[in-house]
Task: inverse folding
């Protein structure tokens, strides 16, 4: 008889690979879910434990620091994650009895350590349970950054940056949204099927389906085990994409038969969307610095039936040597800190530092300068990121326009809709730039700017 898989042990393995081996949460967890045959209940618990610890790591560490007699960072990595795993169940999962959470943690401590480690883990977690009501957060009046960082589990440097740019209310709203479970959103491949037909098909397979409000191809779905196992995936009827991400290609709105450059194309979600909007007519040059990532673009094109994409392994800053003055449309979906997608990739908040912001802003300014050479007069350029950072977004575009007076910002209302822009906290219809904050209209955080070359 096969021994029952220990879900907490699997969670510990996934957390170790993320924290110590820099694995991405979706890939590390996905690999374990594929490898082990788990019940629906165990799959749900494993997912909850992994993402719960990643989202609430800062808050968990704050609580643990009050019951530990040594710095958390001095502990052996598995012991550190084991304490976080136990603390998450004690503080956030009321349906799991505290004795069960502690006992399971002690068993794993014995497995990976020795009796002394097991006793240490047992003492810390029981002490946490006894003292948790005594532990208070920093005062929001005296230390607003400290309060938000601990209350919503974000690094202090990031909270301070958002407070300076957006104020307390918007920062709290962002931090709260980053800890919510995002919707499962897919983009209909209109080259093969309409959104209405796909919705009927998925409902027939037993899924809950609703339409996105602002992306005409978007659907939100529930009631499945794995997206790639849904009927219609292999046939190329849909792909996985957040609604905010879908708006980027719509902001560019390339015409059928046009020449388009997607300067930072991998993994290809926006590239294939551009092809859809063009009706599979014209030419899309999909460039990326990493050849292995371009394989993902090609694979996506094959599955979705996209025929007009040619991949180019190149640094976007070098593209003028091959494509000077050739493009009618250019998309620069720029490398960024990813601070708009923390609800989907919670580990990112613990990996990025403030120094990356300035570095990426410089890089993206250089990419835009190069793309200015590739665009025909009268052509359109869209600059987008999935981050919330003025230095990477508005300031990059403003500086670019100063260096290139031949470019002007264009109103986004005809492409994204006045309703959306008026609903956004930072929406400024008509100025050519929009910042979607994480969680607004249930979307990830995205910045989009549309410019035309005079």
Result:
């Amino acid at each position: 008889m096969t021994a029952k898989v220990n879900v907490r042990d699997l969670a510990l393995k996934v957390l170790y690979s993320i924290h110590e081996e820099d694995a991405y949460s979706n890939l590390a967890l996905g690999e374990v879910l594929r490898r082990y045959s788990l019940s629906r209940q165990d799959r749900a618990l494993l997912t909850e434990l992994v993402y719960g610890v990643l989202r609430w790591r800062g808050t968990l560490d704050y609580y643990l620091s009050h019951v530990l007699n040594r710095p958390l960072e001095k502990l052996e990595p598995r012991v550190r994650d084991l304490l976080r795993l136990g603390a998450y169940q004690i503080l956030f999962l009321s349906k799991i009895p505290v004795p069960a959470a502690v006992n399971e943690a002690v068993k794993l401590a014995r497995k990976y350590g020795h009796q002394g480690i097991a006793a240490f883990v047992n003492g810390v977690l029981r002490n946490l349970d006894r003292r948790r009501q005594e532990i208070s957060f920093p005062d929001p009046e005296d230390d607003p950054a400290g309060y938000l960082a601990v209350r919503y589990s974000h690094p202090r440097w990031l909270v301070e940056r958002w407070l300076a740019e957006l104020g307390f209310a918007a920062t709290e709203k962002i931090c709260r949204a980053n800890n919510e479970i995002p919707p499962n959103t897919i983009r209909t491949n209109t080259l093969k099927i309409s959104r209405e037909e796909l919705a009927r098909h998925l409902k027939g397979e037993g899924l809950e389906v609703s339409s996105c409000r602002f992306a005409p191809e978007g659907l939100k779905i529930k009631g499945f085990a794995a997206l790639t196992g849904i009927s219609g995936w292999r046939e190329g009827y849909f792909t996985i994409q957040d609604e905010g991400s879908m708006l980027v290609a719509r902001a560019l709105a390339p015409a059928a038969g046009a020449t388009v450059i997607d300067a930072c194309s991998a993994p290809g979600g926006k590239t294939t969307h551009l092809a859809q909007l063009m009706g599979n007519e014209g030419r899309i040059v999909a460039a990326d610095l990493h050849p292995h990532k371009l394989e993902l673009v090609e694979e996506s094109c094959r599955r979705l039936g996209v025929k007009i994409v040619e991949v180019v392994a190149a640094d976007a800053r070098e593209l003028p040597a091959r494509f000077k003055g050739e493009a009618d449309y250019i998309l620069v979906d720029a490398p960024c800190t990813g601070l708009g997608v923390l609800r989907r990739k919670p580990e990112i908040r613990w990996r990025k530092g403030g120094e990356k912001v300035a570095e990426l802003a410089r890089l993206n300014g250089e990419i835009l300068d190069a793309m200015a050479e590739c665009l025909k007069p009268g052509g359109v350029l869209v600059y987008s990121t999935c981050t919330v950072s003025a230095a990477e977004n508005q300031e990059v575009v403003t500086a670019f326009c100063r260096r290139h007076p031949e470019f002007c910002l264009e109103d986004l209302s005809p492409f994204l809709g006045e309703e959306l822009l008026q609903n956004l906290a930072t929406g400024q219809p008509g100025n050519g730039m929009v910042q979607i904050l994480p969680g607004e209209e249930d979307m990830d955080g995205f910045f989009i700017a549309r410019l035309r070359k005079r």
